[in-house]
Amino acid sequence: MKKLLIPLFALVSAAGLAATLYMIFYVAPLERALFFNQKVFYWHVPNWFVLFTSVFVAGLCSAVYLKNRNAKWDDVARAAGELAVVFGAIGLVTGSIWGKAAWGHWWKWELRLTTSLILWLTMVGYVLVRRFGGAGSERLAAGLAVFGVVNVPLVYFAVKLADALQQESAHPQTTVANQLTGSMKTTFQLSILTFFAFYVLLMLVRTSAIRDERRVRDLRERGLDAGILES
Amino acid sequence: MLTDRSTAARPPVDWGTTGSMAPSPALRTGFLRTAGAVAAKDLRVELRSREVVYTMAFFATVIVVVFSFAFVKDQRALIEAVPGVAWAAIVFAGTIGLGRAFDREREGDTMRALLLSPAPRLAVFAGKTVAITALVFAVEVVVLPLCLLFFNVDLGAAVLHLALVLVLGAIGFAVVGTVFAAMLLRIRSRDVLLPVVLYPILVPMIMAGTKATSTILTGATGDAWFWTQFLAAYDAIFIIVALWTFEALVIE
C-alpha cells in the first residue's frame, strides 16, 4: 500500500508543481493593483496553509502521544514538526520577497507576520530539542508542541490588540482568496491541492524514515541489553 | 514535611498514573498540604543559602545597568525603554533562577524522590510553581524600582496596579517555566534548550507585561487594565494546560 502511495503522491506533486508554475505565469492574468508581484501568492498562501496544518498535526499527535505513549504518534509529530519548519522558512522568505516588492521593507511588525514568526520559532525550538536533546527529549518536544499550539491564538490576539492600539494591518486580507474568479481561481485551487499532495508525500517519506530510525535504535538497545552487540 | 507524611489522615494513594484527584475533601486538603509542603521546602532551602535570589537579583541589576547605558540620549535615559528593559531583565534573570532551582533537585536526584513519593504529582507541580513565583517576584521587586530610578520615572499612585501586573507576570513565567524546567532535568544541554523552548511560549506574556507597564507609566489606565486582564487570561490558560500535561510530561 505504502509502496504504491509514495510514487503516486510524488507523481501528483511533480505534475502539479509543473502545472501550477505554467498556469501562474502563462494562464492567470496580471492582478489589477499589484501586477506581477501578486504571482507569489499562488505559492505563498498554500505554503502557509500547509504550515498551519503541519503545526496542528504536530500538536495533535504530540497530545495523543503524551496520553497513550505509543511511539507511532511521536514519529508523525516529529515529521510534522520538521516539515513545519521547512514550510515556515519558505513562507517567511516568499513573504519577505513580496514585502520588499510591495512595501519596500523586507519585514514589518505586523499581525500575521509576527504571529507566524513566533509560531515558526516555536517549531524551530521543537526541532532543536529533538535533534540535540538526546534521550528523553521526545516528551519535552511533545510538551513544547502542545504548548506551542495553545500559544498561537494568544500570540495572535496579543499582537492584534497591541496592533489595534497603534497601527493598521498591512498584510493583504486572506478573504481575498474567496473572491478570486476565472483562471486565477483555478490556478490557486490547483496550487493548494498540489501543495497538500506534496505535504502528504513528504510526511509519508519522513515518517517512515523516522520510524525506521527509531526501530534501529530500539533493536540496538535490545542487542546491547542481551549482550549480542558490543558498544 | 516528614511529620506530614506520618499522619494517619493521609489520603488514599493513587500511584500517580492519572490525574489522581478524586473529589473527596480529605484528598483536597492533602493536595493543598502537599503543595504547601513542597513550596515551603523549596523556599526554606533558598532562604538558608539565598543563592538563587542573590544571583538572580544581581544578574537582573547588571542587565538593567547595561541597558540603561544603551538607551541614554542627551545624558538622560529614555523612559520609553523602561518596560522593555524591565521585562527583558525579569525574563533573563528568571530563566537563570529556574535552571538553578531545578539543578538543585538534580544534584541530589531529589526530583525523582519527589515524584515517587505518594503525593499527587500535580501537588508537587503546584508547590514548585509557587516557590518559583515567589523567587521571580522577589527579583521583580528589585528590578522595577531600579528601572524607575535609573530612568527617572515617577510612578506615584499606580504602584499597586504595577505590583499586580508583576505578580501576574511572575505566575505566568513560573507556570510555563516549571513545566519545561522539570522536563529538561533529564536532558543534556538543558541550559541552552531552556531559553530556546521557553521564550517563544512566553512571548504573549512578555508582550502583555510590557504593554501593561508602559500604559501604567503613561497613565492610560483603561489600556493598562485591559493588558492586566490579558495577563490573567494567559496565566489561567497555561495553568490549565500545565495541569493537564504535567503528569504525562514528567513521568519516568
List the helices and strands and how they pair.
The complex is a heterodimer of chains A (231) and B (252).
Chain A: H1 2-27, H2 41-68, H3 71-102, H4 111-132, H5 137-166, H6 182-226
Helix pairs in contact in A: 1-6, 2-3, 2-5, 2-6, 3-4, 3-6, 4-5
Chain B: H1 2-6, H2 25-49, H3 51-70, E1 72-73, E2 76-77, H4 82-107, H5 110-116, H6 121-150, H7 159-184, H8 190-218, H9 221-250
Antiparallel strand pairs in B: 1-2
What's the helix count of chain B? 9
Rg of chain A (CA only) = 20 Å
How many E strands of chain B? 2
Molecular shape of chain A: globular
- Mean pLDDT across residues of chain B: 83
Low-confidence stretches of chain A: none
* Helix-strand makeup class of chain A: mainly alpha
CA-CA gap between termini of chain A: 37 Å
Shape of chain B: globular
User: How many β strands of chain A by DSSP?
Assistant: 0
Q: Count up the helices of chain A.
A: 6
